[in-house]
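Hi team,

As requested, here is the filled-out complex form for the magnesium ion run. I kept the field names the same as last time so the parser does not choke. Let me know if anything looks off before we queue the next batch.

— J.
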Amino acid sequence: MSEMDQPIVSLQQVTKKFGHFEALKDITFTVNQGEVLGFIGPNGAGKSTTIRILLGMLKKTSGTAQIFGQDVWQEDTAIHQRLSYVPGDVYLWPNLTGGEIIDLLLRLNGQQRTEKTETLIQNFQLDPKKKARTYSKGNRQKVALIAALSQEADLYIFDEPTSGLDPLNERTFQQEVMRLKAAGKSILLSSHILSEVEKMCDRIAIIRDGAIIETGDLLSMRHLTRIKMTVRTEDSLTGLEKLPGIYELKFSDSQLQNAEFSVDRDQMDTLMRFLAERKLIDLISAPPTLEDLFMHYYEKRGVDSHA
Ligand SMILES: Nc1ncnc2c1ncn2[C@@H]1O[C@H](COP(=O)(O)OP(=O)(O)OP(=O)(O)O)[C@@H](O)[C@H]1O
Ligand SMILES: [Mg+2]
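And here is what came back:
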């Protein structure tokens, strides 16, 4: 297999035990060349543990974990020359300034400050002259992000990069990820909030209780889920309950002109015709959340396992 076809990150049946506790059970997924993979799961699911194994900070119990086709534990030095990352818990030297820490982090990776670094400091609106101990959580996160993003690497790994960032800085981060993606870099991005990463990701892997429960592109998972709707019409919505693919219907008025429900994606067209005939005044639709994806998975699983 040539280097081009080979996955950049490859985890095969990776397990991790802390004593008797199985933190990771059979973790299998890949990140391909030029791809942004969203690694999504709730608190305690095992995201950081997986990432620490990939970074060679923690030894797996069993399975195969490779980056650039090399073993993450045995060949971590070689791998780290082509890797840039931000860990989940950002530790900064309290008595150094943000700027000094950025320089130090770059030097530790054999790199140095460039024009790109200055642009990032400006874009993230970081004051690099303040001592790290005076920084807020968001500012500490920015220091680590600026150092990681100003490095040239083939693979970027970010563990919950936007935690603590305000919406403006979150957008700056997203723009940086899109820039890296356009440059053909590979990116692994963990988050516990689907909506934070879905714009950037080509594919997602969902982890829960130490196991991967879904992998795939969001579009192919989206059809699994229902859209939440809030509608208001001029005419009564009687008969809405009889339409196919309508669930959890609730009316909030006795004239039946205000309804809340969820709808299957493939019944959207029928629903829209129905609503239009009743003179639609207002419509709010909400995309499925991570929790909806989980719920769907468990409902499906529950039925399968009882069959
Ligand atoms: N060093 C350790 N010793 C014992 N248990 C650990 C250790 N590190 C992690 N765990 C446990 O492993 C599980 C996974 O933790 P991990 O930090 O990987 O979750 P996470 O998905 O990153 O969560 P979060 O979103 O809160 O960062 C948790 O139950 C955690 O308590
Ligand atoms: Mg974590």
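Two things worth flagging: The CA atoms of residues 236 and 256 lie 5 Å apart. The chain has ten helices and 14 strands.

Thanks,
J.
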